[in-house]
Amino acid sequence: MRSPVPDYLEEVLEALREDRDGQVAGYIPELAAADPERLGIAITTALGRTYVAGDADVEFSIQSISKPFAYAAALMDRGAGTVLDAVGVEPSGEAFNELSLEQDTRRPKNPMINAGAITVHSLLVGEAASPAERVERARSFFSRLAGRELRVDEAVCASELDAAHRNLALAHMLRSYGILTGDVPAVVEGYTRQCSILVTVRDLSVMAATLATGGVQPVTGEQVIDPSTARQVMAIMAAAGMYDGAGDWLVRVGIPAKSGVAGGMVGVLPDLVGVGTFSPRLDRQGNSHRGGRLFERLSQDMGMHLFAANGSRLDAARATTAEGTTAVALEGVVQLTAATEMLDLLETSDPATAVLLDLERVHTVTELGRRMLLEGLRRIRLDGRGAALRDPRGVLPEPDLGDGTFPDIVG
User: Fold this and answer.
1) Contact 296, 19 (CB under 8 A)
2) Is the pLDDT of residue 315 over 80?
């Protein structure tokens, strides 16, 4: 059987092919020469399955889509404290190439605008890193996220450097405030090389899916980003990834996203999917026009809005009583909702029965869920009732009840 997902993606592309609103980025000669008819999409699930349609294997420069991923690398290289001392986390409400500094600290307001991204690039590797080391850190890190070796497009880089006057001005202002240190032209060149790395929509979807999984590259299984960093990056994308249109985007589309002036866009939904699109014509805010419409369709058709309730709270736990045992079965991800439902079921269960906690259909237990499950079993034991655990997948390893004792393990 052929999966219907690629057919759906092709259908969505076909519906937008005649939409020719917007213009390519004319201020950079190499980007001005892009084929405006290019159109591609890829989605990668959190389990590593990728579906593509259109120009999915056409390479283009990553541009500002590099910002969230470089931010992740800087957080891991230098620590959250050092990065936050240099770059804030608030939406700017201004265009991507405005200075947008905090009045008191003079920090750039966030890492998604150019001033913040240039500062982030300067933090890569370490304080004594060379320009070449910072660029290689970005290139190799992006390659691990994508699952293949990526390269810098030298022609795009040279073309952008010829028009880098505004970024140089931003960087010199940052240097004057002590936010940026070192050789300003070298930092701007390094940042430009970072933005000139070539990717496809297939690459972008896998890179975004790595954020969605909490930093685990879903194809290779490598933990590329630590979970707290992935969470912070996704939060910044939601708040500021679409520049001065971020609020409208979050309300209308509801997918944390980032755009690039070459026409690429990337989006992510935690635990679910990463999305990459490509269409070179840009809207007035510098975002891909058809790319934005593609994301709107996905949000509407596939229920991808971050704040749309999907009913996953229902049937989180079920209890049955037979032959002197109350069996409480959970499934899926055990976090606050499922764990509290389990505790309520135990509280109202027949006090004359033993309890069996059945995790056979559970694939993940959060740390909060773990604490709540074990505390429930501990209290059952304190009540003088039997406490048993069925966990064939080993999702609750070392189930110490907090006093050195363990529930009975059953097959």
Assistant:
1) no
2) no
Helices (DSSP H) in 102-197: which residue ranges? 114-123, 131-146, 154-162, 165-176, 184-195
Q: How, if at all, do strands 325-334 and 354-365 pair?
A: parallel
State the catalytic residue, choosing from 224, 261, 275, 365: 261
258 labelled catalytic: no
Instruction: Give the dihedral sign, CA 136/148/79/83.
Output: positive
Does 261 participate in catalysis according to the annotation? yes
Given a cut of 90, is residue 408 above it in pLDDT? yes
Round the average pLDDT of the chain to a whole number and report it: 93
Question: Which residues make beta-bridge pairs with 358?
Answer: 329, 390
Q: Determine the pLDDT at residue 313.
A: 56
Is 243 a catalytic site residue? yes
Average pLDDT score over residue span 322-340: 90
Distances (CA, A) of 284 to 193, 246, 260: 25, 14, 13
- Compute, in degrees rounded to 10, the torsion defined by CA atoms 212, 40, 222, 190: -100
**DSSP conformation letters of 37-54:** T--EEEEEETTS-EEEEE
Catalytic residue (choose from 12, 61, 67, 206): 67
Q: Count Cβ atoms below 10 Å from residue 180 Cβ, excluding itself.
A: 24
Q: Compute φ and ψ for 393, nearest 5 degrees.
A: -90, -10
Active site residue 67: yes
What's the whole-model pTM score?
A: 0.88
Of 61, 64, 66, 159, which residue is the catalytic one? 64
pLDDT for 265 equals 98
The percentage of the chain sitting over the pLDDT mark of 90, rounded to a whole number, equals: 82
Cβ atoms of residues 72 and 229 within 8 Å: yes
